[in-house]
């Protein structure tokens, strides 16, 4: 696709107004059910975990309760370990991986850590397999004070009392072919800019915090995930999505400066996973398993450091 490719909504070179936003929203069709895929899966977890509703989103006639899963044996002296998924609703393994982790391994850390898992931050986008919320806002660029994105604001309110208590935060994402075919072209059109095509990495990688890098932590996660699925190689420039490699499968972003979810607390250990579900070398279940492997490796590393 050339840099002059035209997105079907808007006028090239002109940012969207209300008419373009309405046209974009009208084309977003509900394709799956948050109630069936997420809320129904969470329900039986109430037997062994505390489930809290930390906010609601009301978009027209649609009402979305926002749920977080907490360790039942929460103790103030234990470290808080945070897992988030579904910040971008179309990144499916982030949602399913977070739920699978709680179902299969959540009780493994009882008495050693306080787990807080938010499996689907953006339910409207989850249902429409989309990146943005209905106002064409990317929640993962809006984790900031007075956020205009309800998804981001609600999660920030939940975590504000815990900002200094969270020791580890792992945010589960995907990089998909639709990033290049739909979402980045839409972003360029929305902002009245030319679309400059990029390259989608084939494989799993991590995004470290540029301001507080933790290379040994990132390496431990990469090594665990490599047993489940393949790790992305650098492109011809030695980069992944425009960023130089810090070590194999790891790049860095200024997460707080960019208002990303991984910067929402002051966690010493923070990372963002990126799975590639469109790879011919990976199945959907492998993608879910990779997310779970990443979460477990992150937690195991952090707890081991505390025990030293």
From TrEMBL:
Protein name in UniProt: Peptidase M14 domain-containing protein
Assigned keywords, A-Z: Hydrolase, Metal-binding, Zinc
Organism annotation: Dyella japonica
Entry-linked Pfam families: AstE_AspA_cat
Catalytic residues (UniProt): 274 (proton donor/acceptor)
Family from the record: Belongs to the peptidase M14 family.
Entry-linked InterPro entries: AstE_AspA_cat, Peptidase_M14
Cofactor(s) needed: Zn(2+)
Domain Peptidase M14 span(s) in chain numbering: 30-306
Transmembrane segments: none
Matching CDD domains: M14_REP34-like
């Amino acid at each position: 696709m050339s840099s002059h490719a035209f997105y079907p909504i808007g006028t090239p070179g002109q940012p969207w107004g209300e008419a373009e936003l309405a046209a974009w929203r009208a084309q977003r069709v509900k394709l799956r059910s948050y109630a069936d895929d997420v809320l129904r899966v969470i329900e039986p977890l109430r037997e062994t975990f505390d489930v809290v509703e930390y906010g609601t989103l009301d978009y027209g006639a649609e009402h979305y309760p926002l749920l977080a899963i907490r360790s039942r044996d929460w103790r103030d002296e234990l470290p808080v370990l945070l897992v988030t998924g579904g910040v971008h609703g179309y990144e499916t393994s982030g949602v399913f991986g977070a739920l699978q982790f709680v179902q299969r391994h959540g009780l493994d850390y009882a008495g050693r850590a306080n787990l807080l898992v938010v499996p689907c931050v953006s339910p409207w986008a989850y249902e429409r397999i989309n990146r943005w919320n209905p106002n064409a806002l990317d929640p993962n660029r809006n984790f900031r004070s007075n956020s205009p994105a309800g998804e981001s604001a609600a999660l920030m309110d939940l975590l504000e009392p815990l900002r200094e208590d969270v020791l580890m935060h792992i945010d589960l994402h995907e990089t998909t072919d639709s990033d290049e075919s739909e979402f980045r072209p839409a972003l360029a059109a929305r902002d009245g800019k030319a679309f400059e095509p990029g390259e989608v990495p084939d494989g799993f990688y991590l995004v470290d915090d540029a301001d507080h890098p933790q290379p040994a932590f990132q390496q431990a996660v990469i090594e665990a995930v490599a047993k489940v699925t393949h790790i992305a190689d650098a492109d011809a420039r030695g980069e992944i999505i425009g960023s130089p490699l810090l070590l194999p499968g790891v790049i860095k972003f200024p997460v707080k400066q960019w208002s990303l979810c991984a910067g929402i607390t002051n966690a010493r250990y923070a990372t963002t996973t990126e799975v590639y579900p469109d790879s011919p070398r990976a199945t959907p279940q492998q993608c879910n398993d990779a997310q779970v492997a990443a979460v477990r490796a992150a937690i195991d590393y952090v707890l081991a450091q505390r025990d030293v």
